[in-house]
Design goal:
Layout (H helix, E strand, L loop, with lengths): L2 H33 L4 H31 L1
Helix pairs in contact: 1-2
């Protein structure tokens, strides 16, 4: 395999790893919120913060993709 193939596989693996980590974090937060009897507003805030964290990683990836595409 060429080095470019290794880099693509590495980038894909890293993205899948982050997706899996965010999924596991979400499942654990869901479990904690369910067991802790958190009110709906508190649940909304927790999920909003988690979503914004995920959106930040996605935005970083998109910006990096466009930035590297220009060079």
């Amino acid at each position: 395999m060429l080095n470019s193939h290794f880099e693509q596989l590495e980038a894909l693996g890293l993205n899948l790893f982050f997706a899996a980590i965010f999924f596991l974090i979400g499942m654990s937060i869901r479990d904690v919120l369910k067991q802790g009897n958190v009110p709906p507003f508190g649940r909304f805030i927790v999920w909003l913060v988690l979503f914004l964290g995920c959106a930040g990683f996605i935005a970083k990836g998109v910006i990096q993709l466009f930035w590297e595409g220009q060079a």
